Amino acid sequence: MALTPFHLAIQVRDIDEARDFYGSKMGLAEGRSAEHWVDWDFFGHQVVTHLNPAIGRDGKVAAIANHVDGHGVPVPHFGVVLEFEQWRAFAERARSFVDEFVIEPYIRFAGQPGEQGTMFFLDPSGNALEFKGFRDIHSELFAK
Which Gene3D superfamilies does the protein's record reference (predicted)? Predict the structure, then answer.
Protein backbone atom coordinates (compact mmCIF):
# COMPACT_ATOMS: atom_id res chain seq x y z
CA MET A 1 0.00 0.00 0.00
CA ALA A 2 1.33 3.44 -0.91
CA LEU A 3 1.75 5.83 1.97
CA THR A 4 -0.30 8.99 1.91
CA PRO A 5 0.29 12.19 3.89
CA PHE A 6 -1.21 12.32 7.36
CA HIS A 7 -2.94 15.34 8.90
CA LEU A 8 -2.44 16.22 12.55
CA ALA A 9 -3.74 19.23 14.45
CA ILE A 10 -2.02 20.18 17.71
CA GLN A 11 -2.58 22.93 20.25
CA VAL A 12 -0.06 25.68 20.92
CA ARG A 13 0.00 28.50 23.42
CA ASP A 14 1.19 31.22 21.00
CA ILE A 15 0.98 31.38 17.19
CA ASP A 16 4.02 33.66 16.78
CA GLU A 17 6.07 31.33 18.97
CA ALA A 18 4.90 28.36 16.85
CA ARG A 19 5.88 30.23 13.66
CA ASP A 20 9.34 30.85 15.07
CA PHE A 21 9.84 27.23 16.17
CA TYR A 22 8.30 25.30 13.25
CA GLY A 23 9.11 27.83 10.54
CA SER A 24 12.32 29.65 11.45
CA LYS A 25 14.04 27.03 13.62
CA MET A 26 12.83 23.72 12.14
CA GLY A 27 12.70 25.15 8.63
CA LEU A 28 9.22 23.88 7.76
CA ALA A 29 7.32 25.61 4.97
CA GLU A 30 4.18 27.45 6.06
CA GLY A 31 0.96 26.74 4.19
CA ARG A 32 -2.44 28.31 4.75
CA SER A 33 -3.02 30.21 7.95
CA ALA A 34 -5.43 32.43 9.83
CA GLU A 35 -5.27 34.38 13.06
CA HIS A 36 -5.55 31.26 15.25
CA TRP A 37 -3.91 28.47 13.19
CA VAL A 38 -1.07 27.69 10.77
CA ASP A 39 -0.57 24.74 8.37
CA TRP A 40 2.99 23.33 8.16
CA ASP A 41 4.63 21.05 5.59
CA PHE A 42 5.99 18.49 8.06
CA PHE A 43 8.22 16.35 5.81
CA GLY A 44 5.38 16.04 3.30
CA HIS A 45 2.64 15.72 5.94
CA GLN A 46 0.23 18.37 7.17
CA VAL A 47 0.64 19.49 10.77
CA VAL A 48 -1.57 22.34 11.91
CA THR A 49 -0.80 24.41 14.99
CA HIS A 50 -4.01 25.72 16.58
CA LEU A 51 -4.00 28.41 19.25
CA ASN A 52 -5.34 27.30 22.63
CA PRO A 53 -5.28 30.38 24.88
CA ALA A 54 -6.27 28.21 27.86
CA ILE A 55 -2.70 26.83 27.95
CA GLY A 56 -1.43 30.26 28.98
CA ARG A 57 1.83 31.88 27.89
CA ASP A 58 3.97 30.01 30.44
CA GLY A 59 1.99 26.76 30.31
CA LYS A 60 2.58 23.48 28.51
CA VAL A 61 0.30 20.75 27.18
CA ALA A 62 -0.05 17.77 29.53
CA ALA A 63 2.03 14.61 29.01
CA ILE A 64 3.15 11.43 30.74
CA ALA A 65 6.22 9.24 30.17
CA ASN A 66 6.40 5.50 29.43
CA HIS A 67 9.53 3.37 29.76
CA VAL A 68 11.04 2.25 26.41
CA ASP A 69 14.62 0.97 26.00
CA GLY A 70 15.75 2.60 29.23
CA HIS A 71 14.23 6.02 28.52
CA GLY A 72 11.09 7.88 29.58
CA VAL A 73 9.22 8.38 26.30
CA PRO A 74 6.76 11.30 26.41
CA VAL A 75 3.13 10.49 25.59
CA PRO A 76 1.47 11.81 23.55
CA HIS A 77 4.06 12.48 20.87
CA PHE A 78 4.25 12.56 17.09
CA GLY A 79 6.93 12.73 14.47
CA VAL A 80 8.22 11.29 11.27
CA VAL A 81 10.23 8.27 10.12
CA LEU A 82 13.24 9.14 7.96
CA GLU A 83 15.93 7.30 6.05
CA PHE A 84 18.87 6.86 8.44
CA GLU A 85 21.23 9.37 6.79
CA GLN A 86 18.43 11.95 6.61
CA TRP A 87 17.75 11.32 10.32
CA ARG A 88 21.44 11.69 11.19
CA ALA A 89 21.68 15.01 9.32
CA PHE A 90 18.47 16.29 10.97
CA ALA A 91 19.77 15.22 14.40
CA GLU A 92 22.87 17.34 13.86
CA ARG A 93 20.78 20.31 12.69
CA ALA A 94 18.37 19.88 15.63
CA ARG A 95 21.27 20.46 18.02
CA SER A 96 21.34 24.07 16.73
CA PHE A 97 17.75 24.88 17.75
CA VAL A 98 16.84 22.42 20.53
CA ASP A 99 17.84 23.78 23.92
CA GLU A 100 17.16 20.50 25.74
CA PHE A 101 16.34 17.09 24.32
CA VAL A 102 13.86 14.89 26.18
CA ILE A 103 15.88 12.00 24.72
CA GLU A 104 19.18 12.83 23.01
CA PRO A 105 19.72 11.35 19.54
CA TYR A 106 20.85 7.73 19.92
CA ILE A 107 20.43 4.24 18.44
CA ARG A 108 17.47 2.44 20.02
CA PHE A 109 17.25 -1.38 20.04
CA ALA A 110 20.87 -1.60 18.85
CA GLY A 111 21.60 -4.95 17.20
CA GLN A 112 17.95 -6.03 17.46
CA PRO A 113 15.09 -6.16 14.96
CA GLY A 114 13.76 -2.64 14.55
CA GLU A 115 17.09 -0.94 15.31
CA GLN A 116 16.57 2.78 14.78
CA GLY A 117 17.96 6.20 15.40
CA THR A 118 15.62 8.23 17.58
CA MET A 119 15.40 11.55 19.38
CA PHE A 120 12.69 13.43 21.27
CA PHE A 121 12.29 17.12 21.96
CA LEU A 122 9.48 19.51 22.86
CA ASP A 123 8.12 22.49 21.01
CA PRO A 124 7.68 25.67 23.13
CA SER A 125 4.11 24.61 24.03
CA GLY A 126 5.28 21.21 25.32
CA ASN A 127 4.20 19.10 22.34
CA ALA A 128 6.62 16.15 22.14
CA LEU A 129 8.16 15.33 18.76
CA GLU A 130 10.01 12.13 17.85
CA PHE A 131 12.19 11.64 14.80
CA LYS A 132 13.18 8.09 13.85
CA GLY A 133 15.70 6.88 11.30
CA PHE A 134 15.94 3.40 9.78
CA ARG A 135 18.56 2.01 7.42
CA ASP A 136 15.78 0.09 5.59
CA ILE A 137 12.41 1.58 6.52
CA HIS A 138 10.32 -1.01 4.68
CA SER A 139 11.85 -4.07 6.37
CA GLU A 140 12.60 -2.54 9.79
CA LEU A 141 9.66 -0.27 10.64
CA PHE A 142 7.45 -3.10 11.92
CA ALA A 143 10.15 -5.73 12.53
CA LYS A 144 9.50 -8.01 15.55
Answer: 2,3-Dihydroxybiphenyl 1,2-Dioxygenase, domain 1
